[in-house]
Description:
By secondary structure, the chain is an alpha+beta fold. The chain has one domain (2-113): Alpha-Beta Plaits. Helix content is 35%, strand content 12%. The strands form two sheets. The protein has a two-stranded antiparallel sheet. Strands 2-3 form a two-stranded antiparallel sheet. Strand 2 (58-61) and strand 3 (64-67) form a beta hairpin. The longest helix is centred in the N-terminal third of the chain and has 15 residues, at 2-16. It is globular, with a radius of gyration of 13 Å.
Amino acid sequence: MNIFKNLFNHSTKHKLNCEPTENSSRPRHGLNAEGDFYVEKDCCILCGAPEVEAIGLMGHSDEGCYFIRQPETEEEIEQAINAIAVSCVSAVRYGGTNQKIIKRLYDLKLETECDHKLIKQ
């Protein structure tokens, strides 16, 4: 899946203006629920995959998917992480600083979808 994601990112990121950055100042889809998990503005291509992984947490509009609410339980956090993993254009992101969640994303090779770095201890 990562090979497909990397190829797809390479071919579309310039068109979608979704260049990776090293900071947490990415613009968010306007309908995202306030919180750490979000979808980057103008990057979703409406594939539908993240919404399937995070039913009840995500919705979609004509402008792309977004978080309708933030995860509250460990199970919902895992669903949100799965939504990040299946996003074909890396539009679903984690902007929080919870090191347990960041480590989980790093373990899944999803560090580019984190707005903050893993702090090595």
